[in-house]
Design brief:
Number of helices: 13
Radius of gyration: 24 Å
Largest sheet: none
Shape: globular
Order of helices and strands: HHHHHHHHHHHHH
Number of domains: 2
Number of strands: 0
Length: 338
Amino acid sequence: MTNRPPAIYLAFYYIAIASALASLVFVFNNFLLYSFEWPGAYSALAALGIIDGDDFGPAGFTGFLQLAAFIAAFALPAYAVWRQSPDSFDSALEKNEARLRSAAAYIISLAFWSVMFVGIVDATISFMRIEGFLAALAGNDLASNIGRSVWRGSYIHIPLIVVGALIALKYRGINFVWLATLIVVAELLIVIARFIFSYEQAFMGDLVRFWYAALFLFASAQTLIEEGHVRVDVVYAGLPERVKAWVNVAGAAILGLPLCWTILMRGLWEKTSVINSPLLNFETSQSGFGMYVKYLMAGFLIVFAFSMLVQFSSFMLTNLRKLVSPEQQAEANAPVEA
């Protein structure tokens, strides 16, 4: 076989790889735009005269760097598709599938360790602050700083997230039963404190909601990695394996990826978008002595959409491999019995 792989296979291959790379660039670019005030790719397009430049400042080197990152996210997969040979197509699918699956697993593991550390530490700080222990132990100035969401987020939450990222490099096999167990323990403490000691504070409920949101949003991608989602199955189970693979590829491309892109683009399109706004302002709940993690719960949507998008891309490659495998090719070319 010397011909190139079928165009439809290459098209889905490109969609999967380009979507994963473009989403990474989009999320990272959003961080550079609003945290470090980089000018953005639009400023570079305006400098080149491609779009009207009245609303954009000077691009500078960083603006052109951001534009180049977006171009590379779409150009590199196109180059890989153009260079793809039939003999190595299956191995290319396998390698990229493994890379995407590993990336999704890392994102989920990072998020798991981060919410566990942040939840425990922030709840402890809130308890000490309410009971007056914080000022006695840390001094009035530090206690006052910890009472500000921007300070607590910048100097406590972000370092804990970095620690979670480092731990996730080694420990990626996360069982979300542990997070569910932490939720049960936190809820049990609320019941014991309320009905036995008549003690209840806002941070106790905040901790349960914080971990509960993480469980459902992060475990969705983890369940997709393990192919554990429940299918509303009417005809799928009785379909041939080749048709099942086509259903999975088309479903991920038509339904899965657009859903994830909609969340990312609606939430991160501008500074006042529904995800960016609480993150940039370190938004907290109305309860003054609760946990200062509301802004992180908005960030959970980024983790959910990004990890699901990467895993949908991996899922597409998994099923493309089934379509190009020798067994499936033989099944497709087999004569139909009368």
